[in-house]
Amino acid sequence: MALARIGIIGGSGLYKMADLKDVEELEIKTPFGSPSDAVILGTLGTERVAFLARHGRNHTLMPSELPFRANIYGMKQLGVEYLISASAVGSLKAEAKPLDMVIPDQFIDRTKNRVSTFFGEGIVAHIAFGDPICRNLAGVLASAIASLNLPDVTLHRGGTYVCMEGPAFSTKAESHLYRSWGATVIGMTNLPEAKLAREAEIAYATLALVTDYDCWHPDHDSVTVEMIIANLQRNAVNAQKVIQETVRRLSENPPVSDAHSALKYAILTQLDQAPEATKQKLELLLRKYY
Ligand SMILES: CSC[C@H]1O[C@H](OP(=O)(O)O)[C@H](O)[C@@H]1O
Ligand SMILES: Nc1ncnc2[nH]cnc12
């Protein structure tokens, strides 16, 4: 039996969810190591949800140090089918101002040092990733935001999230380059998660919370952590309202998702010929395909 169907990964500024009831802390082990922190199981409304602080509750892990595979596999072990990521981002477009929310539908990969697959060691799979965000989950997120009428917040539906390696922020030349590509926001974390969630057949959507204008904007200072912190707290309050309303809608009406069958035509290896150790490691992902 699933312990939670809905998972939440909280990014910078969202280290806990104040409204969770009947909280349990789970120290999870996966074949890919331990997640960033204990997973917090708790009830939101009538639904059990699983919450994980992406950088740890005291923000001790850099983007390049995140155990992405353990984080996503851990959610899978709990039975998660829908995963909402709340993330701080810099804006690459004038109209997406600090405190606004963006629900991206595309990514550009500028990471250099991330492991973004569960496969290898004798089992090969190539998931389709043309649409990296679950459209239906994103739709529920968007309708939840629209229903809340949050003051000072404009929702931007769709857009491209550039995922950079970090930890240093971009140079101005890079920031202008990403703008010339038409990208909307920039962050350091969501692309590996989206890939791994798709491999784990979990529907994934990003709630991107704008904290700054990166370093391209002629009328704003270049991004600093000091500048970001001023907006993180207001974003975290808004994000929790959005997540609560999204969870309520998902419980009432869980949407279908292509992600839930993403591996159906993705595995190239004949599983009966594959190494036993790898099959065991990936058992949770593969068992419906034997
Ligand atoms: C707050 S400075 C940069 C840091 O913030 C974002 O984190 P997250 O995606 O976990 O909210 C960004 O990706 C960087 O990791
Ligand atoms: N400007 C920025 N670049 C990368 N990640 C960010 N997270 C928040 N703001 C950011």
Can you walk through the features of this model?
- By secondary structure, this protein is of the alpha/beta class.
- It is built from seven helices and eleven strands.
- It has helices spanning 68-78, 135-148, 172-180, 190-199, 225-252, 276-281, 283-286; strands at 6-10, 21-26, 39-44, 47-53, 82-91, 101-103, 106-110, 155-157, 160-164, 185-187, 203-212.
- Strands 1, 2, 3, 4, 5, 6, 7, 8, 9, 10 and 11 form an eleven-stranded mixed β-sheet that branches.
- The model has no long low-confidence stretch (mean pLDDT 97).
- The structure holds the ligand CSC[C@H]1O[C@H](OP(=O)(O)O)[C@H](O)[C@@H]1O and adenine.
- Residues 11-12, 54-55, 63, 87-88, 166, 187-189, 225, 228 line the site of the ligand CSC[C@H]1O[C@H](OP(=O)(O)O)[C@H](O)[C@@H]1O.
